[in-house]
TrEMBL record, chains A, B:
Highest taxon, organism lineage: Bacteria
Organism annotation: Sphingomonas gilva
Molecular function per GO: oxidoreductase activity, acting on the aldehyde or oxo group of donors, NAD or NADP as acceptor
InterPro entries: Ald_DH/histidinol_DH, Ald_DH_C, Ald_DH_N, Aldehyde_DH_dom, Aldehyde_DH_Superfamily, ALDH_KGSADH
Keywords: Oxidoreductase
Gene3D superfamilies listed in its UniProt record: Aldehyde Dehydrogenase, Chain A, domain 1, Aldehyde Dehydrogenase, Chain A, domain 2
Domain Aldehyde dehydrogenase: 22-428
The keyword DNA damage is annotated on this UniProt entry: no
Protein name: Aldehyde dehydrogenase (NADP(+))
């Protein structure tokens, strides 16, 4: 499986490799050392060229039949697997993530591409609706109306640092945009440009093998905000997928809103993913909850969007037992290499600010690390009243840092929930005796989170049909969407209605009989 | 059927009637006279009260079962019919629209409410997806995941001037938002406050009869931009539906984007609805096309969002025949009362600017009117090159004004199409011989318009399942949506995933067996 590969540092403008005079290197976060080779950073010219190619590719790619598009996605998956261990090795050295984790992330990435291939074939996302003509209707005849969803146009995808495979060059945004029929221009994350290059090679190879127009995919590397801004501002870009910080996401939202023609931005930004411990559950299993919580908190050095950064519970001896168990587990949690020096620095600053806060108590710290960019876990506690009095405490500290909010009573806990911002997830631990209290909290939690978990932990996001990885602002820029799971395709589509068209000019899926096997609505009735 | 009704001029804050010291009156556009009675204009206090009631009503209304919600929509329809001729009479005097047109518009309005009632019962819009647990899956078990869409929250609806019933207080935005489970706060259009009050009475009566929380519906009247801005900025408002001018829509978009938590705005704003006349169709039926075009252009004094404001064709003797036929028909087109003095004034200014433009030729004017606010139809022509050189000519002039763009050849016509902004509709007239040319234009038209018509006219928007009344910016603020037809409900929904919840705490439609009869996906498979 393993093959020796050379990383060139080039940009991918369609099928062309491009170099610039602006060079940068990746950093090995485990050592702080710069990594070979030099990578070209894209500038305004490369943005324009990639976007022009994407726009030129759009009509032909949008018109591909479902089977062609599905096989293209599968070929990308095959090509990624074909990169062998070289991909894992490079991702490991660029991200500090363990090989075992990256092996799992690769499986998730190719599984996601194959799931979207199956979804493309399913065709339900086309939302086909046919209202046949009623020429004799009174007082007016009804025309023949046929609706399908079409792709929006070229999509700009921003690779995320924390999933160098699954949320990066061939991650969920790219897979769902390509599935929808949109060409993709990726702005690669500067922390893992070698990984990006290898994956780009897999995609570009699949583009060529399928005979698709080269502009279906480009990769632009670079570390500057200007690069991302120029990409979002390009008039040929029709939508944006982003996973990253709140500052970065809101900056892109502003640029997109101020364009002459505004475009949708799907930014997955920040969440503290509250975990609510109900009294009977605490009483019954405080120690197990404490251990489970710390395991979820410290997994992957806490670098998950769904990391449980907030625990809400009512003060009680059982909560003291939970806290003691969590403190003990955290005290033994090893430090781990964080993704980038910048993320490590921001984590350190966030933790220090909490530790120095006069109303915040440091409950426990994890083991100190040995390398230059090791993240050391941290657990804090605060009273509900003090938490409500200082909104900064509810800001995400990306990494294994979490705050326990001790509530006087159930009413206080409910009030704290009401005051929370939008979240990716909300988690409840409860027993049957707690159900009335849970039922009282659920309506508020439904307005706050995209996914609500019972007696589990929010880390671990299944890629499937019923998943929602999204949530009200500021968890994402657009709470009407998910960035994980097959429903993510809907972000890159819009409906078009064809009125009274002859079969010869209709897209094949809207012609008489062209819906065979595809879910659709005929005069409103659900049909296949 | 007819009943005598008194119009009070009050605001509807839930079930309370409110008065303020800021008074205004409607104008009879046929005469310019002020109409009785005085209407209270809402201010910041009334906005706050209505939004607080809407937020308080949201959890209970969102949780109503489908049958309750469907019957509520049907009761609104019944109550509107129960208002009898008094509603038509008031709408006529406030809008200048003929009684026959308003009778049809009322049928459309109540038909739309009943269609959404049926759609609520259908339940496909819930997007139910169930991925059953796989406890034995390797390497990790899969949790039980269940997805449904939930309503966004209270929706602000802005009544439109040009459909005092179908796009106003109980129009498509209100019907689809209520169908989705969202309380509605309407900002009534100041041109028809009496009509708004009567319809508000129908809705508020249905709210009370159904025993729903009073905040499910409020009506705030007023003419100021500040009122609309305060409503969109209110933190309890979760989405906005608007039909009106580009200036008004973009102002609301800005306010919504600058909120601490931005919200979606569905603004249907401006379109010139290009009509493309293919050479063989022109040759075969130039005279009939000219007459049909003028009939569509002048229908309702041109005050439709889908009014054909632009015709594109290749210069030829047949185009001269079309132009002559259109000029002759237009010359006999009577003027009509426009909706408001302001709309009449803006129409006059737009027409005068075109008439005075050095590159624009006035082809024909309609008959002059007799009243103070009669709109006189106008048809202009310009060369493609001059059209492309002056973007102002492509701006909508609301009313019966249209521009014919004469293209040198097919390539010029295609280039003009490429340069168009987003549109609600695009129309093609063609014969079988023209089909290759049409096929070449369709990919571009699909990126420009929400609805594409063959051999018809864009005025007349069917309310059905396959309709799209939307389109890329600036036709609307969000080309991913439609404001007419059952798909409009999707604007006011977002997905929520429930992970590993016991049946007892799941919403009924997600419980085991709770999907009976509802379209859903079980492990991805489409099922009922």
């Amino acid at each position: 499986m393993e093959r020796r590969v050379t990383i060139t540092g080039d940009l991918f403008i369609g099928q062309s490799r491009a170099r610039t005079s602006r060079l940068f290197r990746a950093v090995d976060p485990a050592t702080g050392d710069l990594l070979e080779p030099d990578f070209s950073a894209a500038g305004a010219d490369e943005v324009k060229r990639a976007c022009a190619l994407a726009a030129a590719a759009f009509p032909a790619y949008a018109a591909t039949d479902l089977e062609t598009r599905a096989r293209f996605l599968e070929a990308i998956a095959d090509n990624i697997m074909g990169l062998g261990d070289a991909l894992l090795d490079r991702a490991h050295i660029e991200s500090g993530l363990p090989i075992a984790r990256l092996t799992g992330e690769r499986a998730r990435t190719v599984g996601q591409l194959r799931l979207f291939a199956a979804e493309v074939r399913d065709g339900g996302w086309l939302s086909i609706r046919i209202d046949p003509a009623m020429p004799d209707r009174q007082p007016l005849p009804r025309p023949d109306l046929r609706l399908r969803k079409v792709p929006l146009g070229p999509v700009a995808v921003f690779g995320a640092s924390n999933f160098p495979l699954a949320f990066s060059v061939a991650g969920g945004d790219t897979a769902s945009a390509l599935a929808a029929g949109c060409p993709v221009v990726v702005k690669g994350h500067p922390a893992h440009p070698g990984t990006s290059e290898l994956v780009a090679r897999a995609i570009a190879g699949a583009v060529a093998a399928a005979g698709l127009p080269e502009g279906v995919f480009s990769l632009l590397n670079g570390a500057s905000n200007e690069l991302g801004g120029a990409l979002v501002a390009d008039p040929r870009i029709a939508a944006v997928g982003f996973t990253g910080s709140r500052g970065g996401g809101t900056a892109l939202m502003r640029i997109a809103a101020e364009r002459p023609a505004p475009i949708p931005v799907y930014a997955e930004m920040s969440a503290i993913n509250p975990v609510l411990l109900m009294p009977h559950a605490l009483e019954a299993r405080a120690e197990a909850l404490g251990a489970g919580y710390v395991a979820s908190l410290t997994m992957g050095v806490g670098q998950f969007c769904t990391n449980p950064g907030l625990v809400l519970a009512i003060d009680s001896p059982a909560l003291d037992r939970f806290t003691a168990a969590a403190a003990e587990a955290l005290g033994q949690a090893p430090a781990g290499v964080m993704l980038t020096p910048g993320i490590h620095q921001a984590f350190g600053q966030g933790v220090e600010a909490l530790a120095a806060h006069p109303r915040v108590t440091t409950v426990a710290r994890g083991l100190a690390g040995e390398g230059p960019h090791h993240g050391r876990a941290a657990l804090f506690s605060i009273s509900a009243e003090d938490f409500e009095g200082d909104h900064d405490i509810a800001q995400e500290v990306f990494g294994a840092s979490s705050v326990l909010v001790r509530c006087r009573d159930a009413a206080t806990l409910a009030r704290v929930v009401e005051g929370l911002e939008g979240q990716l997830t909300a988690t409840l631990h409860f027993t049957a005796e707690d159900e009335p209290m849970v039922a009282g909290l659920l309506p508020a939690l439904e307005t706050k989170a995209g996914r609500i978990l019972a007696n589990g932990w929010p880390t671990g996001v299944e890629v499937s049909h019923a998943m929602v990885h999204g949530g009200p602002y500021p968890a994402t820029s657009d709470g009407r969407s998910t960035s994980v799971g097959t429903l993510a395709i809907d972000r890159f589509l819009r409906p078009v209605c064809y009125q009274d068209f002859p079969d010869s000019l209709l897209p094949p899926v809207l012609r008489d009989g062209g819906q065979a096997g595809l879910p659709h609505r005929l005069d409103g009735k659900h049909t296949r």
